[in-house]
Design brief:
It is a single chain. By secondary structure, the protein is an alpha+beta fold. Helices cover about 45% and strands about 15% of the residues. β11 and β12 form a beta hairpin. Bound molecules: iron/sulfur cluster.
């Protein structure tokens, strides 16, 4: 027993000595390296994937698909030649391409290349395409292929929402929002410069057609030729737009300039006070559920002449005009008040306050000689001035929704008057305007004094600005991706379509899903 203990003691001593020597080799202060699972990327893997499970049951992409499957796609199928049992390669289902774009806009993506990339990795796109990739040419072409078909799709979605009781034309709010164009302020040029660039573009195209060209790659040549042709077309369009602006130019205005990047864009004042090439998108929103019932991009810098755009859009999409339109002061002018009344629409909007004092001050007139100091006599249809001289009617002008009567003093009276320097220092003799609104305008003004009309107007901002904010903040559409009024209009319709389907998802699809669960 003693001998065995002695052997064990010797064994322990040997182990300690060996361990001590190994420890000394790696450094006595360091601990052994930790061990982890290896990362091996040099391998191929096959895993089962349930495409249906890529997205949750309540994912909005399913709502988009559910909606597009309720629409009639015959218009989009008109050009398709390949039929079942026949020859040829199958094309993409228009429902899929439309759903992809609606999903892309809902995710703040408006680039065809980005959407094509998303098809390779983004679960919503993968679910829609069933793991197929869709190239960006197909996506890009589909987005702008048929404007009328797209507008018909917008109307069909409105039809679904109406059938479910989500739209009501009793009250519609119209508002305009500026969305920047795909052009910079530096791209604006006057005629001379555009003509020079057009000449250079023509020379470039001719040089490319030279058979002795050193460029060997045919694809590169074709791409460059296409780009040069498009550039030339844009410059030619810029000259046409210049012509239109020139025709409407007042003598006091400077020579117009047009963007060479997007000739149909216009420089517009932005909400932050700055100016940028933009389009003014008119949006009509019904008040019951804030559904967009009309959307149209325009080149107008202000909303002043755009009331008809909104009313016509609602009529085209919904088959009838709204009972009541609520707009801000930017739309209120006598012509709009009268045209709304003629179409049987109850217009609600703030009565513009006129400030004649500013113009009187500019004319150098002192407050003691402002028009309210002149006495009107309806019997004789004359005014009497503070110096007791008579101003008689000289001219009558029929303007939009009102008649303007101009009264003037006798030149000899003003010339001899001691108050002339205070009453009409810049233009003598003194004249005064009396304005008489039409009966329709008078009725509108009286209505807008009532508490009921004021109360309705107070609800305008919440409804009208909701879709504007949604499109810019949630869809991220602060700058159009496409150029030209036609394509920009289509992009606006895609955004409106996406917005409406999102409201339907919120108001109907999700509650129904929760109720069924
Ligand atoms: S300037 Fe002429 S209009 Fe004015 S107070 Fe004298 S007379 Fe009257």
């Amino acid at each position: 027993m003693g001998e065995r203990l002695e052997l064990l003691g010797e064994g322990l001593e040997t182990f300690r000595a060996e361990a001590s020597s190994a420890w000394a080799e790696i450094g006595s202060d360091e601990e052994p390296r930790k061990r982890f699972k290896p990362i091996n990327r040099n391998q191929l893997m096959i895993r089962p994937l349930n495409v249906e499970r890529l997205v949750e049951e309540n994912d909005p992409v399913r709502a988009i698909w559910a909606m597009v499957c309720r629409l009639d796609w015959s218009r989009f199928e008109e050009g398709v030649k390949v039929v079942e049992g026949g020859k040829g390669r199958s094309g993409y289902d228009p429902r899929l391409l439309a759903a992809l774009w609606i999903y892309a806009y809902s995710e703040g993506v408006n680039s065809a290349r980005e959407l094509s990339r998303m098809c390779a990795y983004e679960p919503g796109c993968q679910w829609l395409t069933a793991m197929e990739e869709v190239n960006y040419h197909t996506l890009s072409d589909f987005r702008t292929r048929d404007k009328e078909a797209l507008e018909e799709m917008f109307v069909q979605v409105l039809g679904v929402l109406s059938a479910e009781g989500l739209t009501d034309l009793k009250r519609v709010m119209q508002d305009g929002t500026k969305i920047k164009a795909q052009a910079s302020g530096n791209s604006f040029r006057r005629e001379e410069k555009i003509r020079e660039h057009l000449r250079l573009a023509q020379e470039q195209i001719e040089a490319m057609e030279d058979p002795d060209s050193e460029e060997l790659n045919q694809r590169v040549i074709k791409a460059k030729q296409r780009a040069a042709r498009e550039n030339k077309q844009r410059l030619e369009q810029a000259l046409e737009e210049l012509q239109k602006l020139e025709e409407g130019r007042k003598a006091s205005e400077k020579a117009p300039r047009v963007s060479e990047s997007d000739p149909e864009a216009r420089v517009m004042k932005q909400s932050d006070g700055g100016f940028a090439p933009s389009y003014n998108v008119q949006i009509c929103t019904e008040a019951s559920n804030k559904i967009i019932v009309a959307v149209e991009a325009t080149q107008a810098g202000t909303d002043y002449d755009q009331l008809a755009t909104g009313i016509d859009g609602v009529q085209a999409n919904m088959g009838q005009t709204p009972e009541q339109m609520v707009v801000d002061g930017g739309y209120i002018k006598n012509a709009n008040i009268e045209s709304a009344a003629e179409r049987g629409i109850d217009l609600i909007g703030p009565v513009a306050e006129s400030h004649p004092e500013a113009s009187l001050e500019q004319r150098g007139i002192r407050p003691e000689f402002y028009p309210d100091q002149f006495r009107y006599d309806a019997h004789t249809n004359t005014f009497t001035c503070p110096a007791r001289k008579t101003l008689t009617l000289k001219r009558t002008n029929q303007r939009e929704g009102r008649i303007e009567y101009q009264y003037r003093a006798e030149a000899s009276d003003c010339a001899a008057c001691p108050f002339q320097s205070q009453c009409c220092p810049k233009r003598s003799p003194r004249w005064i305007l009396r304005k008489e609104d039409s009966e329709i305008v008078k009725a509108f003004r009286a209505k807008m004094q009532t508490e009921q009309a004021k109360q309705i107007y107070r609800t305008r901002a919440e409804v009208a600005e909701f879709p504007n904010g949604w499109i810019k903040e949630k869809l991220g559409l602060r700058r159009f991706r496409l150029r030209g009024l036609r394509k920009v209009n289509m992009e606006a319709v895609w955004a409106g379509l996406t917005y409406n389907i999102q409201q339907w998802t919120r108001l109907t699809w999700r509650p129904n899903l929760a109720a069924a669960a």
